[in-house]
């Protein structure tokens, strides 16, 4: 596949169309007139009421509702970290991504793993860690895997700020229910997943922003505008997005940017398969053996780790990338 880069006019028009000029994370305009949904839970709420409230669409508070005090400063810091992780949490990051690349609109957008839905879902047992995780531990895992970095320690301002920001966004949301828009949509699995079809979808729909070789695109000052999807500057093999089902759900709902739900389910599955069949940084849990690491952590048809693709066993040549030392 040859490199296909837009000329200057196309590039500028594309940025204007997508509303990304000057942005380093994916952010969307928010109408100031919108109000958070009123969702309340009383001690007497029964199961039916809980289920009914869970189906209500939740709208997080607006930025202008952030208090003008020290608590508000921490909320704003969390928002800034989410939007520009490279600048505001660089000591914990080992790739070129921002939190807002996978959690669009600074963690506000439904079906893009919004922070407000995640915050009220923890503590929770996670198969990945085989134990109950707190929200803080979930965020630490994002840094370790999705950011190919290291976990901010408990009490660090980065972790405190993200938790405070998530708390603010979840204001008014019920706990103990699975809010609509949480995580990424779970698509019905098709009869087959096709790498070749996925490569075609990628070339037609994705390469203009993410580059034909999946390395993303930077602005003239070197700031990342569109993130790399594989290679040493992308998420590592331990990240949730390396699961084809997660990638397909995210792509279906959110990609191409600002044009979510324009790809068919099959196209989303196929392009997710293509993207997650590329080499990327090594899983931090690597045992020294790709086969053993796959058996322990990737024993699923949704993971291509340890699988033979184009004559190469994925993970065999994976490096650490720019992962900082723990």
Automatic annotation (TrEMBL):
One of its GO terms (molecular function) is electron transfer activity. The keyword Heme applies. It holds the Pfam family Cytochrome_CBB3. Residues 193-279 form the Cytochrome c domain. Keywords: Heme, Iron, Metal-binding. Residues 33-53 are annotated as: Disordered. It comes from the Bacteria. InterPro entries: Cyt_c-like_dom, Cyt_c-like_dom_sf, Cytochrome_c-type_DH. This is Cytochrome c domain-containing protein.
């Amino acid at each position: 596949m040859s490199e296909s880069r837009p000329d200057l006019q196309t590039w500028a028009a594309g940025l204007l169309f997508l509303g990304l000029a000057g942005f380093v994370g994916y952010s969307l305009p928010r109408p100031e007139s919108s109000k958070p949904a009123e969702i309340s839970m009383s001690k007497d709420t029964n199961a039916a009421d809980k289920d009914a409230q869970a189906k209500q669409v939740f709208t997080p508070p607006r930025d202008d509702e952030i208090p003008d005090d020290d608590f508000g400063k921490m909320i704003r810091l969390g928002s800034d970290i989410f939007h520009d992780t490279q600048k505001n949490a660089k000591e914990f990051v080992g790739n070129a991504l921002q939190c807002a690349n996978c959690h669009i609109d600074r963690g506000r957008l439904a079906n893009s793993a919004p922070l407000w839905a995640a915050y009220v879902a923890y503590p929770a047992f996670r198969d990945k860690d085989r134990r109950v995780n707190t929200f803080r531990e979930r965020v630490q895992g994002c840094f370790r895997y999705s950011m190919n970095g290291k976990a901010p320690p408990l009490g660090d301002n980065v972790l405190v700020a993200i938790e405070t920001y998530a708390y603010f966004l979840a204001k008014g949301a019920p706990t103990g229910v699975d809010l609509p828009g949480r995580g990424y949509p779970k698509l019905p699995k098709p009869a087959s997943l096709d790498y070749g079809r996925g490569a075609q979808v990628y070339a037609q729909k994705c390469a203009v922003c993410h580059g034909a070789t999946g390395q993303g695109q930077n602005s003239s000052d070197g700031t990342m505008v569109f993130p790399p999807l594989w290679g040493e500057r992308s998420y590592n093999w331990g990240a949730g997005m390396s699961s084809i089902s997660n990638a397909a759900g995210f792509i279906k709902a959110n990609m191409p940017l600002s044009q979510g739900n324009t790809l068919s389910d099959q196209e989303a599955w196929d392009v997710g398969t293509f993207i997650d069949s590329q080499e990327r940084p090594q899983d931090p849990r690597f045992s020294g053996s790709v086969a053993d690491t796959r058996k322990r952590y990737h024993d699923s048809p949704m993971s291509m780790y340890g699988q033979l693709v184009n004559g190469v066993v994925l993970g065999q040549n994976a490096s650490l990338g720019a992962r900082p030392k723990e």
